[in-house]
Amino acid sequence: MSATTDDQPTLQRSLGLGSVVLTGVAYMAPMIVLGTFGVVAEASNGTVPTAYIVTLIAMLFTAYSYGRMARAYPVSGSAYTYVGKGIGPKLGFLAGWLILLDYFFLPLVIWLIGAAFLSPEFPGVPNWVWILAFIGLTTALNIIGIKVATGVNFVLMAFQILVLVIFVALSFGHFFAGDTGATALTPFFNPQTSVAAISAGAALAAYSFIGFDAVTTLTEETKDPKRNIPRAVVITALIGGVVFIITSYAVELAHPGTHFKETDSAAYEIAMTIGGNLFASLFIAGMVVTQFCSGIAAQATASRLLYAMGRDGVLPKRVFAYVAPKLHTPVFSIALIGIVGLAAVWMSVSTSTSFINFGAFSAFTLVNLSVIVHFWRERSTTDVGSIIGWLIVPLIGAAIDAYLLFSLDTPAHVVGGIWLLLGLGMLAWLTRGFSQAPPEMAIGE
To answer: Which segments constitute the Amino acid permease/ SLC12A domain (predicted)?
Structure first.
């Protein structure tokens, strides 16, 4: 159990490895590979699976670092906990604040995208109705309990995977049935691509992986967390990567190149080509289910980060550290995520997604660095294996994440910079001008 007062309700250890991995995969939303296919294809000059291979390798470095720190500090809090304990509480607060930019607003974006898919199909229904429906259902499921939420996710994930399998099968069928102009190797490399193009595509493809780290926020609700959480982080990244690579390979065979009527909706155009109107409708249903699954997982993990920060006194403890006695869920934190999601009514997808990745890549970089500092401070051996595992691998991960961070567009840097300044202001207030440590993070089993 988490470290709290004796009489205060705590989170329950009810999740096995499979449930944790399911939550992480749902958070990543496997069908996002189709939602972003046109953009990545354009950037990589038609070598989407190669871009995803490069990105998977890159993300595994960071997943490895998350696993190392999850084994060392098996409590909720993710980057907030790992950087705080690995490097220091002030940087830990900033890491938590930065990843909060990702966690706190990602559900909003997910619900907004889901509504955007439904609105064209039902033009008579206002967009805000769909947003409210997503928020209401998702919030209710998460408040009822994490086991109920993961159970619903299992059913919906099955449908999402079914749509992906049909899409892949139809893509292969279209390739073998006619002359698409592609060969078996065209999706991986063609005369128009280059190392620079593949790198550009990989930078965009990296956004699809954001969320593999979210499973670490479920540490205090996971059985045998020192064993299961590190495994879950890597398995989640691997599953996502394999799905992205296989799917993008099949789609590239069916539609090689970078020419689409609308780049942002390229997958819908391809769905019409390979399966007609009926499958195109099924595809849209799959995308809506994807957003619903991802919304459940995103809200659950964001609320656990708020819970960890509230329990430690960084955020108001009475509100954010409260756990419902019967439901064993942080109801106020869950509700707050839903309330923030209401802002989606007045926002567009482009504006709401521009700043999320700033927080994610900043926190990823700090987590990799925290592994190095933790090793340097706690090292009991300096053999070759330890040097590679605790120094070389996380250093490569930090370099990759820093590159992705600086590759973001100007609006992301501006909004991210403002968020960082607000965090520095709060840290200054909590530490009385940086003269003392912020509230200590509680570590417990």
So the answer is: 28-372
